[in-house]
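User: We ran a pulldown and think these components assemble together. Before we commit to crystallization trials, I'd like a predicted model of the whole complex to look at. Sequences follow.
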Amino acid sequence: MSALADAEVRLRVERPEPGLLVLRVSGDWTLDAGMPDADEVVRDIESDPPSRVRFDASGLGRWDTALVAYVYRVVASAVEGGAAVDLSSLPEGVRTLVGIARVVPHAGAARPPEDDALTARVGRVALRAWDTMSDAVAFLGETVIAFAAVLGGRARFRRVDLLHALETTGAGALGIVALINFLIGAVLAFVGAVQLAQFGAEIYVADLVGIGITRELGALMTGIVMCGRTGAAFAAVLGTMTVNEEVDALRTMGLKPVEFLVVPRVLATGLMLPALVAYADLLGVLGGGLVGVSLLGLGAVEFVEQLRSALPLRHVLVGLVKGGAFGIVVALAGCYYGIRCGRSAAAVGEATTRAVVSGIVFVVVVDAAFTVALHVAGL
Amino acid sequence: MAYGARVVQRDVDFEVGPGEIFVIMGDSGCGKSTLMRHMIGLHRPAAGDVLYDGEALWAADEDAVDRIRRRFGVLYQYAALFSSMTLVENVSLPLLETAGLERALAAEIARLKLALVGLAGFEEHYPAEVSGGMKKRAGLARAMALDPEILYFDEPSAGLDPLSSRRLDDLILELRDSLGTTIVLVTHELPSIFELGDSAVFLDAERKTMTAKGRPGELREASDPKVRAFLSRGRL
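Assistant: Here's a predicted model for the assembly, 615 residues in total across the polymer chains.
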């Protein structure tokens, strides 16, 4: 409360005559002493525009940028309202600084306010979505053409980039894929067992874990983990290259960024994911088996036997094929947002986030599509 | 030249002669770098074209564009070196990919180019391990890798101390005088403009058009007061 009282004492706004607005500034006007809200005076000026505005600094103590900022705002508003401004009472330093600040006229290149009607907003979102979609389709097309060039032996990318991508995508992910899938397998076994125990059918935990992991969860969880890991990395690397003009440099050298940057990454991820999924399946079944054997009292041999009889190779293969598809989706999402990145550090962050979110969404969509298609095909 | 609906410059019309140093100048935000991007094939003109010896860059098919691209090299404002490659790998890239040279030969030529810009001994360094000035020189070595007829420099003095800037200017003059390279410079460094420029064009940010064209020395007496003020740093 006392701070507020101080503020009021330091500024007095008076209209001693019609058309004249006097602002008496007294006491200390410094950043640590605080600054009264300029909005109040600005509103006063706008509601009842004076023809003259005068500052009276006879009681002014110490001052710094706080005073200059306040005076600048008030002067801007007063001049806009057509008032004549008298700053003669203010210290010379304040007058000089306000003068410098006002030398370059306000650029005035303000954007016209956007139409806020619901239909306009919906329209804008729809148009942006359409632009993004057509751009994404164009990117997809470029990638397909680039892969055709790979098959024809004409694609230009560095072998070392492919090898590096294989390493980071594959070998680098073993730890996290193992952990996630082991735990998922264990959780699945546990949740299933609770239900199956009611019917004395605990042994079918092996079926649940076997089919659930190999056909669905192994590939799905690995795909999602790779979105966060590899998709994000691709988006960040390509995004940073875009910000640094490295992608432009490739273009002016006659190299196609899609061939040089995207192909090795998509190839690496598409090749590595099935291998990772196989590894994930193993760990998932292991996790489920451990729960089955230790917590449910199933015999280890019993578990393995049940697994073997319940799990035709078909399910494992489905999982591996899905893994390959997910790998391609993850890499495409990461590379797309990376190459389409804006030109700032914040844009790289945004690109990374979008890559991960889109990647996850598309992995799940592709999974659903596979499920329907395989069901229809009777597989 | 436009970004979507926003026009940056219009009615820009000029010629760059062979073996000349051509300067693109103007106040901040006038579109100097944008103009250069149009000329090197990175940004499609909203209207008009860029002609290389009469051949239109933006109307050409892919093979013709590739041919045109081989005729020029670009030094970007912050060098745009590929951060995952060493300096020698950076300079070798156009030799390997665009010219299709053998790896060993490409590396040899790359080493030579790096030595020419004073970076002998730094071949195996990564861009993050060298200074800004050295990155620029490496970028120049890469731009010159294929001995292009035309070199584009986007703000070559950006981030350089006055001495390094001077050395770069001398190098640019050397390129014109001994190799006959045509050079297009985007810059607002006045010393460079007067020392190097054979011909120049001034882009006005407010009027969004080209307001002066000619030799920098003559443009000091241009009819447009803004051009005069720019070239005398405000001290008329």
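Chain B touches chain A through 23 residues (CB under 8 Å). That may be worth checking against your pulldown data before setting up trials.

User: Thanks, that helps.
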